[in-house]
What we know:
Layout: H1 3-6, E1 10-11, E2 14-15, H2 20-31, E3 37-40, E4 51-54, H3 59-63, E5 70-73, H4 77-85, E6 89-92, H5 99-108, E7 112-114, H6 122-130, H7 132-148, H8 151-164
Parallel strand pairs: 3-4, 5-6, 6-7
Antiparallel strand pairs: 1-2
Amino acid sequence: MLHGEICERRCRGYVLEIPDYISSKMVSAFLKLKQNLVWRVKLQSPDPGKILTSSWVPQNDILGHKNTKLFVFRCGMNGQYEGMYHAVTTFCLPFENDMPYNAQRGVAKGFGLKADIREVTDIQLLTLLENNKYKKNIQKASNLYKELYSFRNLLCRTSLSGLRRGMFAPCLKETAF
């Protein structure tokens, strides 16, 4: 695990500083892609026209943009749900706590791949961008997630549960209908 190398460089749960040997490998892989990137990290971008770096980015807004193709992240629970909601293929780089479990769960469901952050390659990134099976799997999960947690479904389940438990006025009980 990378606990000693990266975790001490964290700020409010987010990795902002990455050791040079890791960041140079990631930059090399990113530069080989034809897509432009947004990367939340405390680094000067080697090519600002290709890689936008910042210590803060609106993650959920970026994931919701129609042109977002791939979400490379540390595989925290919230990021995983945001990526699934917006149906963005994931590339997990876990290094502590529940991240390896979350990453393995995403791989098992076919939402993307995982890798050791010290060994990221452009081939792994290209595989995710070019293979539609990951996009199809996460799109299906996104549709199910949105349907399950839609306001109408939640309202119906809450109302029916309340009716069964007698939590409403007598005129609203199931026997009144």
